[in-house]
Amino acid sequence: MKNQQVLLAARPRGPVELKHFRFVEAPIPAAADGEFVVRAHYLSLDPYMRGRMDDAKSYARKAEVGEVMVGTAVGEVVESRHEKFKVGDFVETRTGWQLYGRSDGGGVRKIDPAYVPLSAYLGAVGMPGVTAWIGLNEHGRSKPGETVVVSAASGAVGSVAGQLAKLQGCRVVGVAGGNAKCDYVVNELKFDACIDYKAGNLEAALAAACPQGVDVYFDNVGGPVLDAVLTQMNAFSRIALCGQISGYNNPDALTVRNFRSFLVNRIQLRGFICSDHMDLWRPALKELGMLVHEGKLKYRESIAQGLENAPAAFIGLLNGQNFGKQLVKLI
Ligand SMILES: NC(=O)c1ccc[n+]([C@@H]2O[C@H](COP(=O)([O-])OP(=O)(O)OC[C@H]3O[C@@H](n4cnc5c(N)ncnc54)[C@H](OP(=O)(O)O)[C@@H]3O)[C@@H](O)[C@H]2O)c1
User: Fold this and answer.
1) 317 lines ligand 1 (CB under 6 A)
2) pLDDT of amino acid 302
């Protein structure tokens, strides 16, 4: 038995390619005093990982060339010399893109796969769900009856943000790429409407779907979608700026023409990072876990099989090939 790892092989300039990763085998780590070893079952692939590959100032430490790619996994403790974690415990841990990782327990969350499925702790009941909860409640501050637009609406964060806004009694309009994703957003997630931004005429489609204008925009993508939504924003509306995935491979794509809307409509825009609000994780996770457990919050997953397929799945995520939370199954 060997460990498998994916290392950052080189920093991309522009689009990420397979050559930027290296797949290696290594010995399975052993736990030192105060540590335990986790066998990962699922690895989460997330857009933020693109930023970690760059040598640029950011809110978090970059990944180093030659090191295991950063990332979060859920799995089972298989060896322990830690008093609070025992063999057989299930945990969510930042062990990165590998099968086995060592931990001293810092930042590790114990999870219960009998309550919600194990993989959900990386999606709706994990960081993406918490991000949606914080963005909507703290920054969007949506109220019943208001119109909320959510981009990347079928994705890990967007699907939760839109469903939470629906539960609050808002009119919710999604924006997603293609008919299949839009059908899912309306028919399964029960958004009031969903617009395919790849079909053209985005401004006109938004105006038709939001007859009362837009009170809250939960922005996951930036770029041309943000530009179009700006034309429909109401006076004193809010934008929760969560992500800018349309520009992660190409920052030039983030140009905004309709900037004047901020002034004319006195829009409040707030960029936020989920880790700014660690005090809110506990209440957010409690609510999200309950909603998933009771079947009131739905989610969908794209699952790549085997660690060796993680780089291709990550490249696909940055190009919209995932449909729901992107995971890699490791066991
Ligand atoms: N601020 C925070 O703390 C925080 C935390 C987590 C995530 N985020 C951000 O939230 C966003 C969504 O993350 P996620 O994990 O939920 O990913 P996701 O939505 O599950 O997957 C990414 C989706 O982005 C869309 N996309 C890709 N390229 C695009 C483009 N050029 N224009 C428009 N849409 C594009 C694709 O959906 P379509 O096919 O529908 O285009 C793709 O499926 C990302 O921007 C991420 O960086 C922020």
Assistant:
1) yes
2) 98
Percent of the chain with pLDDT over 70: 100
Query: From ligand 1's centre to the CA of 220, what distance in Å?
Result: 5
From the CA of 211, how far away is ligand 1's center (Å)? 26
Quote the CA–CA distance of 246 and 262 in Å, as a whole number: 21
pLDDT of residue 59: 84
Residue 230 has pLDDT above 90, yes or no: yes
Choice from 189, 220, 277 to test ligand 1 binding pocket (greatest atom count within 8 A of CB): 220
Q: Using CA positions, which residue lies closest to atom 8 of ligand 1?
A: 243
The structure's pTM equals: 0.97
C-alpha 124 to ligand 1 mean position (Å) = 14
pLDDT above 90 (res 250): no
Is a pLDDT exceeding 90 seen at residue 57? no
- Summary mean pLDDT of the chain: 97
